Amino acid sequence: MLDLEGTALTADERHLLQQPQVGGVIFFARNFESRKQICTLVEAVRAVRPELLLAVDQEGGRVQRFKTGFTRLPAMQKLGDLYRSSPEQGLALCRDAGWLMASEIRACGIDFSFAPVLDLDTDTCEVIADRAFSDNPDQMVACAGAFIEGMAQAGMAATGKHFPGHGAVLADSHLETPYDDRPLDAIRANDLIPFARLAGSYEAVMPAHMVFPKVVPESVGFSRFWLQEILRGELAFDGVIFSDDLSMKGADVAGGYAEKAAAALSAGCDMVLVCNCREGALEVLDYLQQQPLPASDRLQRMAGKGAVDWQQLQDMPRYLSTQQQLQALPEA
Fold first, then answer.
1. Could you give the residue numbers annotated as active site?
2. Which strand ranges, in their side-by-side order, compose the sheet holding 159-163?
3. Residue 104, class by beta-carbon neighbours within 10 Å (0-12 exposed, 13-18 middle, 19+ buried)?
4. Residue 194: cis peptide before it, omega within 30 degrees of 0
5. Are 243 and 272 in contact (CB under 8 A)?
6. Do 92 and 83 form a contact (C-beta atoms < 8 A)?
7. Could you say which DSSP state residue 214 is in?
8. Whole-prediction pTM
């Protein structure tokens, strides 16, 4: 999965997307000007390869790529706070927020948003913090479970991230490799709980670019222990495993782009992401073109199922009610 340079498809990108080793496109804020424009860009990509998986990070709060013409979603911690003060109301709004987010993205023809965050945090980790519903495993499971239900109601597959939990470290894996010195039992007793208890609900997982040196020396996304023994074995997860972006500094422990892609695929990833570095994406493409790697049969589980158009969506009472409730959440 790779990204695009701007708001319209270039001739070079059309050629790139025709390569069979390219399986998806992720959209960023630089690809977005308006709702009409992003729908046109999606149509252009679909015209080249209709089967490509199209994705975006539309979590809410700090991580929302499409804004103008879309509902401004709160940070998930706000929904977690509502759940703590009013569990019934909080769960209902988590479910409706998941449905609304997914419905807007599906109305554009995009398959899925990489959501929700299952990391346990409130203010420890610089890059997670309020992206997480809670630092309490039980509250996280309740809120994220409801959010995932809402996404499914809109025809969107969910991606739990960042396995097995990024919330206990200070470092930002976009900028450096975080190290978490806790033993495996401590992780099982806390961070791993949402991934374990919701394993039958989400269709995909994105591993964290971080190292747990008291468990194994490899970074999670390049580790057969984490992806095969724990995720596939212990958690019995049979869905898609996406690498996190191989351009992130936290991934550099595995070497250059081809080495990172090889390590992620060898560990068990079904698809690797290379974003914000076209040179790196081309290096990975060149590597994959030389490998007898069959496509994962799991990936099509991420294709969107059904969608309503924007006018239908905006006329729905549930849509209007959810917008009003989200807007009424306290600012802090």
1. 174, 244
2. 159-163, 204-207, 240-241
3. buried
4. no
5. yes
6. no
7. T
8. 0.94
Peptide bond into 116 cis (omega under 30): yes
* Cβ–Cβ under 8 Å, residues 241 and 227: yes
Is 187 within 8 Å of 165 (Cβ atoms)?
A: yes
CA atoms within 13 A on the CB side of 100: 26
Name the band, by pLDDT with cuts 50, 70 and 90, for residue 122: confident
Q: What is the pLDDT at residue 250?
A: 46
The string of DSSP letters for 266-308 reads: HHT-SB--B-S-HHHHHHHHHHHHTS--PPPTTGGGGS-----
Task: Give the whole-angstrom CA distance, residue 265 versus residue 242.
Answer: 10
Q: Which amino acid is present at 280?
A: G
Residues 34-42: what's their mean pLDDT?
A: 97
As given in the structure block, the two tokens for residue 84 are: 């703590």
At 43-62, the pLDDT tens digits run: 999 999 999 999 999 999 99
Q: Which pLDDT band, with edges at 50, 70 and 90, does 103 fall under?
A: very high
Q: Is the domain covering 11-327 a CATH 3.20.20.300 domain? A: yes
Rounded Cα–Cα distance for residues 39 and 45 (Å): 10
